[in-house]
Write a structure and sequence with these properties.
This protein has about 230 residues and is mainly β. It has a single domain, classed as Sandwich (Jelly Rolls), CATH 2.60.120.560. The protein is about 10% helix and about 40% strand. Strands 1, 3, 4, 6, 11, 12, 13 and 15 form an eight-stranded antiparallel beta sheet that branches. β11 and β12 form a beta hairpin. The protein is globular, with a radius of gyration of 19 Å. The relative contact order is 0.24.
């Protein structure tokens, strides 16, 4: 090894020393000390249950794999834990661009068919260009973000979601304010409807496999689902 090569390698090692991140589906000691929780252990669906439909969910290759089932209504894998004000991060990949999905936040159940109908705010997941990251009221009023209601394609859609690749989402919900980011790009900054917020100030997290009728099967994957509880400002 030449002296120049050794210097280059040493420089690279120093440059990357601070970039080490946790293994998938785990937290660093720093994240744990900061109050983050890991909601998926990478191996099992412990702490989760299926509601509202019969789509299939399983832990596979360090991911949660959701697969459509013909004629099933919208289905959700919901967390046992309840969350009010929080910051949530996760990664998601649509294996098929035809599939629409979403991440429920502060959601609840009504009725008892298929274990109850999930309702509440949903952070959209869909192939781009589209409305990924905007806020939809699942069985709770439809679109809450104003952008998808626009007739202007320059306003109602974007291409920050990478099709058939892993996408990093960040969701921050404090009081009525809900903010989202996809791959570092801010998407939504919404003050949630007061009446809807009064009904859903707190609830579970839910991973949606959308109903597709007789089409499919289509699949979606999630991993690195981490959440940190926050306190609403006084």
């Amino acid at each position: 090894m030449t002296r120049v090569t050794a210097i280059v390698l040493a420089t690279l090692m120093l440059a990357t020393a601070g970039l080490v991140r946790a293994e998938d589906n785990t937290l660093t000691p720093e994240q744990k000390a900061d109050g983050w929780q890991n909601l998926f252990d990478g191996k099992t669906l412990d702490g989760w249950s299926v509601k509202s439909g019969v789509a299939a969910y399983k832990a596979e290759d360090g991911t949660i794999l959701g697969t459509t089932v013909a004629d099933s209504p919208n289905t959700f894998l919901v967390s046992d834990g309840q969350f009010k004000d929080f910051e949530l991060t996760f990664e998601v990949k649509l294996e098929n661009n035809e599939l629409n999905s979403g991440m429920q936040i502060r959601s609840k159940l009504k009725g008892d068919k298929y274990g109850g109908r999930v309702y509440g705010p949903q952070v959209e997941i869909e192939a781009g260009p589209g409305q990924s990251g905007y806020i939809y009221g699942e069985a709770a009023g439809g679109w809450q973000s104003p952008e998808p209601k626009s007739k202007d394609p320059k306003v109602n859609q974007h291409s920050h979601f990478k099709n058939k690749e892993w996408n990093q989402y960040r969701v921050r919900a404090v009081g009525r304010k809900i903010e989202t980011w996809i791959n570092g790009q801010k998407i939504a900054d919404l003050t949630y409807d007061q009446k809807l917020y009064d009904d859903n100030p707190e609830g579970f997290i839910g991973l949606q496999v959308h109903g597709v009728g007789k089409k499919g099967p289509y699949q979606v994957r999630w991993k690195n689902i981490h959440i940190k509880k926050l306190s609403e400002p006084k």
